[in-house]
Specification:
It is built from 14 helices and 14 strands. By secondary structure, it is α/β, with parallel strands linked by helices.
């Protein structure tokens, strides 16, 4: 969505803010890995608790990395940004009250998951419940990526369901233009990309990996702490590779090495609030998909293989591989075009205009 905002000419100036995590341990861990105090080739200016970088392509965009909301305020002041004349668009419920207290011109909240059900935020459940109440009462516009999230905000008239989308041109690049860093493979590759965390059904993965030694299973993405033991166990299997994080520019190359893409998520309250971004990226890449019936996937019933049990998942992978054709590939890619971010932004822009925010 940020790219759409940058190219739409709707906003004269865009400031993308990354506030370091809420807990001290996470702040230290992220700080040591990202080193926000260090300059880079795009750094415009730097304070004691923030850094401001320019966008190498979009001159109307700046990026702020800051330690807390006070540091954000200092950075905005440095950029001569008047918060009272600014529209703030946030997906972080825990920052909502602090943002609203700054009295922006308008506050848009983007609900991408139900954080109250997220395993990483179990210790903040009460704070999150209060934050969602604040957002419900005070936000000008609320967008949700899944229909299940509408209930959190009481399905009020200013709450809108707008699913995730995809950068179609980026992910639909043809095989002939790609030179994958993974290399050639002779055996079928069953692939997953995304954050590897406890939302994944690892017992299901154990079953299908052991059931199919003739397939290679590739997992692309960062491994969260709550999944490290499961990942360590899976790494011992000969037909499993964990490839780590892949830069966004290289992601299409990776997806085009998959003979079948999977979404092996658990079915629970958290996944009920999801709308998997990877689903649209898999479709744009044209690869066959096998998924558990998490929220958002059911809209593609004729293009996605569904499975609940490990046995069903195994059979659906076999079915997906054996029935694959150029016709199915084209149908998936055609469907992804209808879910491009540009089309999503057209919907969002209309909503904001109708609300007199634009």
């Amino acid at each position: 969505m940020l790219r759409q905002l940058q190219t739409s000419n709707v906003f004269e100036r865009i400031v993308s803010v990354d506030v370091l995590p809420i807990s001290r341990s996470k702040v230290l861990r992220v700080a040591l890995s990202s080193r926000p105090w260090r300059k880079n080739m795009h750094t415009q200016m730097r304070g004691a608790s923030y850094r401001i970088d320019s966008d190498p392509v979009n001159s109307n965009t700046s990026y702020v990395t800051a330690y807390g909301m006070r540091s954000v305020q200092r950075a905005l002041k440095t950029l001569n940004v008047d918060i009272h004349e600014s529209i703030v668009w946030s997906y972080d419920p825990l920052s909502a009250e602090a943002i609203l207290d700054l009295k922006p011109k308008a506050f848009i909240f983007d609900a991408v998951d139900n954080w109250m059900e997220h395993p990483a935020y179990t210790q903040y459940t009460d704070r999150l419940a209060e934050a969602y109440r604040t957002i419900t009462e005070r936000a000008d516009i609320i967008f949700t990526v899944s229909e299940g999230l509408l209930d959190i905000f009481e399905r009020r008239s200013n709450v809108f369901f707008v699913p995730n989308g995809v950068d179609y041109e980026h992910f639909a690049a043809t095989d002939s233009t790609l030179q994958s860093f993974i290399g050639e493979h002779e055996r079928p590759v069953i692939g997953y990309h995304g954050v590897i965390q406890s939302r994944m059904n690892f017992s299901l993965l154990d079953y299908i990996i052991d059931k199919h030694p003739e397939y290679d299973f590739h997992f692309v993405g960062p491994v969260w702490k709550d999944a490290k033991d499961d990942v360590k166990r899976l790494c011992k299997k000969k037909n499993v590779r964990f490839l780590g994080s892949v830069p966004y520019l290289k992601l299409p190359e990776t997806l085009h090495t998959f003979d079948c893409a999977i979404i092996p998520h658990k079915i629970d309250a958290f996944t009920h609030s999801m709308n998997p971004l990877k689903l649209y990226e898999y479709l744009a890449a044209g690869v066959p998909i096998v998924a558990t019936p998490v929220a958002g996937v059911d809209q593609f019933q004729d293009l996605v293989h569904f499975a609940v049990s490990p046995e069903d998942f195994s059979r659906e992978i076999q079915q997906a591989l054996s029935t694959e054709s150029s016709t199915l590939r084209k149908r998936r890619m055609s469907m992804a075009q209808h879910h491009a971010w540009s089309k999503r932004f057209d919907v969002v822009r209309t909503i904001l205009k109708n609300a007199d925010i634009l």
